[in-house]
Automatic annotation (TrEMBL):
Entry annotated with the keyword Membrane: no
Family, similarity comment: Belongs to the adenylate kinase family.
Compartments (UniProt record): Cytoplasm
UniProt record, GO biological process: AMP salvage
Name of the protein described by the UniProt record: Adenylate kinase
PROSITE patterns named among the record's database cross-references: ADENYLATE_KINASE
GO cellular component: cytoplasm
Function: Catalyzes the reversible transfer of the terminal phosphate group between ATP and AMP. Plays an important role in cellular energy homeostasis and in adenine nucleotide metabolism.
Chief location category: cytoplasm
Residues that, per the record, bind AMP: T32, R37, N58, L59, V60, G87, F88, P89, R90, Q94, R135, R146
HAMAP family registered for this protein in UniProt: Adenylate_kinase_Adk
Nucleotide-binding among keywords: yes
Pfam families in UniProt: ADK
Length: 191
């Protein structure tokens, strides 16, 4: 079973590459960003609270995210090739909760793919997406805050997986196809 985490700074290409990985390896895709945006679109209580954090460039509280993710992981049956976690874990507390969740169901993470992209390119990509996305977090002020939050709260997650020997750095600069080629060669070596 291939259970992958894909992470990196906002705009690094997590969602874009996840779609390609799902297509090639037939995995279940769980994006915490997509789950939250669905709740926001439905104007649920959780969505309204989440939007107040997201629009300011902050992370949604761990407890809320762990809750929403665990419900979705439990819904998977065992008859799958594996899953890709896109945008989760984003804090060390989330990584610890994930370890417990998976070990309770006899699963483990195969590898964490860490996409690295230069800061100017990240800002460029997100501003471009902001022209059509309608997302409250794709504007310059919020993007800068998201990048700060990433360095403080999410970058330490890499060390957690380095210690477990599950870390793979991926150069996230270049075309979508070039980056996917780099990812596929890592994943093919894990099968
Ligand atoms: P996400 O939805 O995960 O937001 P993201 O980081 O902007 O998305 P992503 O990185 O997938 O976008 P992509 O590069 O593919 O989260 C949104 C917010 O939700 C967070 O800020 C946080 O507040 C909250 N949240 C989510 N998960 C959470 C958690 N676990 N804990 C707490 N809070 C959480 O795409 C960016 C753009 O680049 C696209 O337009 C794409 O087309 C373009 N692009 C991609 N690859 C490219 C390439 N190679 N070249 C040029 N452009 C490219």
């Amino acid at each position: 079973m291939l259970n992958i985490i894909i992470c990196g700074a906002p705009g690094c290409g997590k969602g874009t590459q996840s779609d390609l990985i799902v297509g090639k390896y037939n995995l279940k895709h769980l994006s915490t960003g997509d789950l939250l945006r669905k709740e926001i679109a439905e104007k649920s209580e959780l969505g309204i609270t989440a939007e107040s954090y997201i629009s300011k460039g902050n992370l949604v509280p761990d407890e809320m995210i762990i809750n929403i993710l665990s419900k979705n992981i439990e819904a998977f049956d065992n008859d799958i090739n594996g899953m890709i976690l896109d945008g989760f874990p984003r804090t060390v507390a989330q990584a610890e909760a994930l370890q417990t969740m998976l070990s309770n169901s006899g699963k483990e993470i195969s590898t964490l793919l860490d996409l690295s992209v230069e800061k100017d390119e990240l800002i460029d990509r997100l501003l471009k997406r902001g022209q059509t996305s309608g997302r409250s977090d794709d504007n310059l002020e919020t993007i800068q805050k998201r990048l700060e939050v990433y360095e403080l709260q999410t970058a330490p997650v890499s060390d957690f997986y380095k210690k477990l020997g599950k870390y793979a750095a991926v150069d996230g600069m270049g075309s979508v196809e070039e980056i996917f080629g780099r990812i596929a060669s890592i994943l093919d070596s894990k099968k």
